[in-house]
Amino acid sequence: MTWTGFLSQFLEIVIAAALAPLLSGWVNQWRAWLQNRSAPSLLQPYRLLHKLFNKDAVLSNNASPLFRTAPYLVFSCMLLACAIIPTLSTDLPLAPAADAIALVGLFALARVFISLAAMDVGTAFGSMGARREMLIGFLAEPALLMVLFSASLISQSTSLATIVETLSQREFAIYPALALAGVAFTMVSLAENARVPVDNPATHLELTMIHEALILEYSGRHLALIEWAASLKLFAYSCIGLALFFPWGVARAQAPVEMLLALPVLMGKLALGGFLLALLETLNAKMRIFRVPEYLGTAFLLSVIGLLVHLLLSH
Amino acid sequence: MDNWRPISQWLHLDWVLVVMALWLVLSVAGVFALRRLALVAHVLFPIGGLLGLALFGIALGAILGTPEVAVLPIGLPDLPFHFRLDSLSAYFLMVLGGASAGISAFAAGYFRRGEGTPPGLMCLEYHVFLVSMVGVILADDAYAFMVMWETMALSSFFLVTANHRAPEVRSAGYLYITMARIGAIAILLCFGVLQANTGLYTFASMRAQELSPFWASTGFLLAVFGFGAKAGVLPLHVWLPEAHPAAPSPVSALMSGVMLNTAIYGLLRVSYDLLHLRLWWWGGLLLTLGLATALFGVVFASIQTDMKRLLAYSSIENMGLLFVGMGLTLIFSAFGMLPMAALALTATLYHVASHACFKSLLFLSTGSVLHATSERNLGKLGGLIRAMPWVGWLTLLGVLASAGLPPLGGFVAEWLLLQSFLFAPGLPLPLLTMLMPVVAATIALVAALAGYTMVKFFGVIFLGQPREEKLANAHDAGRWERAGMVWLAIGCVLLGLLPTMFIQLIDPVTRQLVGAGLGPQVATGGWLLAPNSVAQASYGPIIFLLGILGSFALAVLLVRLLYHGRMRRSLPWACGFPWGTARMQDTAEGFGQPIRQIFEPFFVMQRELPTPFDEQPRYRVVVEDHFWRWVYVPIMEFSAYLARLASLMQQGRISVYLMYSFVTLVATLLVVMR
């Protein structure tokens, strides 16, 4: 552990927290353009956060302390997730604390808390949202784990830093296993981030919404934290995708100069990823909730097939 | 004990025997204080808990020690009890002592006047149950093992039927004892095979036998059947969801958290200690059984509407995971991959301890809820975290551990298990190598479903609005109950945070069983749990927790500094819909609905749905599993048929019976004289 390690760790956390709303703004802007609407400013998410933080928090009469704790906890989980995913550098002092499996566990922890908080007030929408969120969670989580396992088998490690180092230094060749895993990962991350074929971040139609139903009772700073956490989650998933499938440009350990290059590369990749996400969302329609198990089951099977293909080819 | 030694030279085993003797004294004392509730509850049970704590401490010391043996002249002449305390039994004794300390403390506050069996009798059965479990774990010959095993089954049968006035409790008890008998016969036959015609039933002589693969496999299969019946492995699981809810909660906690472990212990003892042969298909069998059981258990847990049945199915799931771990260990050790075998076995043993902690904790919390509300049905609970904050928050810890979430105990075992799947490098059989990812995928699915189930369990009981009027004046758990639950919750947390230290305790056990251990490797990692190298895989729960708490504190601080902490209370928003009632919340059935739809082939469902024009709308859904219909009902019908055939002989006339005896006598004489 060196000072460059601590520096890159600190930079990663700060950049994740600062850039995450920008990514959401970028995706929203492109969505609006692609749908022939006039787009909100790129900085709109920051204004929203500032506005919400300034407002009073209104709590339901019967809300328990769990309800007030959950937004902070979810925010911390997402921040920690961003801290352990190698986005700028693979030399991260916090990274050994959690490998790929623990990262999935971290997302699950956040999901469980936000679902419990949604059930706390005891409105019909909240508990319905909690059930749907957990439904998507238990279908998506194994698929995500399998995607990460494909990468782990290739690099013989579940440590994210090692995975990224191995993948970025290999010769350019298309791994069929990674291709399948890539498709599965895209499907899972759309579901996990409440994106279009599964959920619609712009909807406020009560019966179709999932993520919005969960956070219906939140207001003020609590809502701001949850919104921020949601954009951090999108940021984290994008970074996992980039780290697994496009790992070039991430700085190695003991290479401070590479760090300088890593940031523009990351922003370039994220900009492209954000555009593709907006495109995907525009081209698809939201599916009925009953179809979601099929959709996520497909992702799960694809990721398992990816693993099997890897084992078959490596034999 | 051969001859009396001075106290200073007593071995660990002697002290364990002292604990057993004192537990027996307590149980006898219970008989003399049959109906004196205060005495039994506030004196006898706490002493029992302290003895559990003592057992915990003794066993902790014994894990690292050398095996100790004792011969007690109990029982038939020339057939003494052999006891032996080695690392494996010490580990299970430690889990037993630790869990029972918490459960006994809880029980001190739990039993009430006028509920079924009088308190003194409960005290008797409870402590005999504990003693017999210690005996099973210590036994070093088949005779002592079977006596203790049967005492365990009988005493727990009486505990299950404590509330014997209710007919469903009686039938649950009957089902339980039937399955226990069938399992015990298989175990008895297994020991019969293992003694290999020597007529010597001590484990020492069984260890010395070299069995042929056929006989070894026969013994192993019998052991899987016998111990599987106790662990609730498919398709022998039927008794578990009936018996656990029927028993009083401390007893359910003891059965689920501790007694099921004796089955795991027995299987480990037979397959790794008494048998020398390791065949890979044994492991494959355990793996398949375990996976099927785990998936079945968790799917059924997620659709239950009775909180104790839900936990019972969750126990089936966890036993399945333990079988998966044991199967994996067998496969690895059959191929001579000892470090991997040690990793899988470490995961299994870790899960034994964490399951004992969180499952006991959750059963105890259902006990508190049951006392406060006299409701077991999830559809009539809700919002209890406000009336019962202690129980609520402690249960939350158990729920998180049970859902396998970091940084609590359940996650470490899951993590280790997944590690051993991932890095199963080149098993000699391609088929197995191909199967590994599928198995890992199923494990991941089971873990994720466990999360769903636990959110349902906690959310429906403790969160939301109370679904019934009376829940508003539910009272929190008393001092004794709290103490027991806090102790178990501390166990869940410490198991989650200090895996490197705890694995040092598992290390001697894996060395004894598979000849390799993770201890030294893990010790080099310090706070980081890294079974192989940090570059390959590592998990640091303390850093993980500090990371979350640190950013939590920072977020709170920054929000307060840069903005404000103003807050108002008001009516819930609920999209501006003001007529919401507690009945409109999602129910346990609602939570089960997606699962019933996705996993439809798992269930036999009967549904009655109301139409929009019903005067009195009625919704009813009955869900059963296929095994009951396709396995148990045919067996029951067949045995009823046999019974009818036998009844043809029973004419009820004494002359006919005399003739039977006469014919039997003549037949016997013919055989003997020939």
Q: What's the helix and strand layout?
A:
The complex is a heterodimer of chains A (315) and B (674).
Chain A: H1 3-34, H2 44-54, E1 57-60, H3 65-84, H4 100-120, H5 124-155, H6 160-169, H7 176-192, H8 211-214, H9 220-245, H10 256-283, H11 292-314
Helix pairs in contact in A: 1-3, 1-9, 1-10, 2-9, 3-4, 3-9, 4-5, 5-6, 5-7, 5-11, 7-9, 7-11
Chain B: H1 12-32, H2 37-63, E1 68-72, E2 81-85, H3 87-110, H4 119-138, H5 142-160, H6 167-194, H7 203-208, H8 213-231, H9 240-246, H10 249-274, H11 280-303, H12 307-334, H13 338-373, H14 384-387, H15 389-402, H16 409-422, H17 430-462, H18 479-497, H19 499-514, H20 519-523, H21 541-562, E3 567-570, H22 588-598, E4 603-608, E5 620-625, H23 626-649, H24 654-673
Whole-number radius of gyration of chain A?
19 Å
Q: Give the topology string of chain B: H per helix, E per strand.
A: HHEEHHHHHHHHHHHHHHHHHHHEHEEHH
Percent of residues in β-strands of chain A? under 5%
| Helical content class of chain A | over 70%
Strand order of the largest sheet of chain B: 1-2
Helix/strand-derived category of chain A reads: mainly alpha
Instruction: Give helix % range of chain B.
Output: 55-70%
The assigned structural class of chain B equals: mainly alpha
**Binned strand content of chain B:** under 5%
Mean pLDDT of chain A: 88
Give the CA-based shape of chain A: globular
Describe this structure in words.
Chain A is mostly helical. Chain A is built from eleven helices and one strand; from the N terminus they run ααβααααααααα. Chain A is globular and about 55 Å long. The mean pLDDT of chain A is 88. Chain B has 674 residues and is mainly alpha-helical. Chain B contains 24 helices and five strands. Chain B has helices at residues 12-32, 37-63, 87-110, 119-138, 142-160, 167-194, 203-208, 213-231, 240-246, 249-274, 280-303, 307-334, 338-373, 384-387, 389-402, 409-422, 430-462, 479-497, 499-514, 519-523, 541-562, 588-598, 626-649, 654-673; strands spanning 68-72, 81-85, 567-570, 603-608, 620-625. In chain B, a hairpin with an 8-residue loop joins strand 1 and strand 2 (81-85). The longest helix of chain B is centred in the middle third of the chain and has 36 residues, at 338-373. The two termini of chain B are 49 Å apart. Chains A and B meet through strand 1, helix 3, helix 4, helix 5 and helix 9 of A and helix 16, helix 17, helix 21, strand 3 and helix 22 of B. Strand 1 (57-60) of chain A pairs parallel with strand 3 of chain B, so a sheet runs across the interface.
